[in-house]
Amino acid sequence: MSYADQIKSLALPTVPTAQAEFPRIGWRNGVKAAKMPGFFYAKAGDFPDGLGAPWQAERVYDNEDGYKALELRIAPIASRVQPFKDERDPVTNRTIQGSRQWFTKWERGMQLYTEILCLMEGYSGPVVFYSDGLTGKAVGIALRTYQNGLLQEAARVAGQGLPMWAFWLPIASKLQNDGKPAYEDTGYGPFVTPPTLHLPENPLDTLFVGPDVMEQATAIYQQHVKWATTLRLPNNTVEGEIVSIVNTPRQIAAPRTVPQPLSADEEF
User: Fold this and answer.
1) d(CA 122, CA 208)
2) For residue 41, which of 179, 195, 265, 144 has the smallest C-alpha distance?
3) Total of domains in the chain
4) For residue 248, is it within any domain?
5) What is the pLDDT of residue 102?
6) Alpha-helix residue ranges (DSSP H) falling in 129-234
7) Which of 9, 123, 156, 232 holds its CA 20 to 30 A away from the CA of 89?
8) Which residue, 22, 40, 30, is CA-closest to 79?
9) Residues of the chain with pLDDT under 70
10) How far apart are CA 233 and CA 102, in angstroms?
11) pLDDT, position 2
12) pTM, whole model, 2 decimals?
C-alpha cells in the first residue's frame, strides 16, 4: 500500500500551529519645538506590498524606510498587556536600547506593554498596534471610552451584544481647545503627544465596519483566539513553563454565539 493510501486512512492528531507573527505598527511622539503632532509609524520591511491611504511613505529614521499616518482608523479584535522593565547597563546605568526584561505580574516600578490585534485602513490583513508607558495608557483610555460610549450605545440600538471590532476607531494626536497638538510633560524626559479617540458626528452610521469586515475580523479572532493569552516568557524561565493572562477584562455583554474579544487591561 502506498504512502498516500496509508496516510489518508489514519486518524491523525491535530498538530498545533506556531504562533502567528503579524506586521506591526507603533505610535511616535511629536516634537513640541516643531509643533509636530504624534503619528503612527510602520516599517516598510513589514509591508513589502506597500500601504494605502492614509499611510504615506516617509523616511522617519536614517537606517530604514517607513510609512507615516497622522490619523488612522483601526478595528480592534483582541489585546494583551505585559509588564516589563528596560534593561540597564551595569556600569553606566543607562537603558540598553531594545533590551527588556519581561514579567507576568505587574509590580511597582514596572511599565506596561500593550498590543492590539486589529484591522486598519490602508492594509487588508491583521496587524498589531503596540505601545507602552504613557502612550499605552492613552491607548487604554481610548479603548475604554469606545467601550463605555459608542459600543454600548450601538449594542443598545442593536438589541444584542457586539464585538469590539464592530466599529472603526479614528485615532490621532490629542488636541488642545485651540486645535493644536497637546504636549504632555512626563517630568523625566521628552514631551508626549498621546494618541486619543476622535469621534465624528453620527459615529453609529459613519464608523460601522459593515458586514464584510465584521466577518473578516470574526474569522481572525477565531483563528488566533490564543494570541491574547500568549505572553513573552520572563528571563531565566524554566523550559516548558506555561504563561498566560489570568484576568479577563470587562467587556460588553454579548450572546453566547458571538466570540468575545479581550479589551484593554484594567490597570489603565
Assistant:
1) 17
2) 195
3) 1
4) no
5) 83
6) 133-146, 152-158, 203-206, 211-223
7) 232
8) 22
9) 1-20, 93, 95, 97-98, 188-189, 234-268
10) 7
11) 60
12) 0.77
Is residue 90 a part of any domain in this protein? yes
Q: Which domain holds residue 118?
A: 21-229
Q: How far is CA 101 from CA 21, 69, 83, 113, 241, in A?
A: 21, 30, 9, 11, 17
DSSP structure class, residue 256? T
Asked, for residue 241, whether it belongs to a domain, the answer is no
Sign (positive/negative) of CA torsion 231, 233, 239, 244?
Answer: negative
CB neighbourhood size of 184 (10 A) = 13
* pLDDT tens digit sequence for 198-222: 999 999 999 999 999 999 999 999 9
ω into residue 54 within 30 of 0, thus cis?
Answer: yes
- From the centroid of its chain, how far is CA 234? 21
pLDDT confidence of residue 97: 67
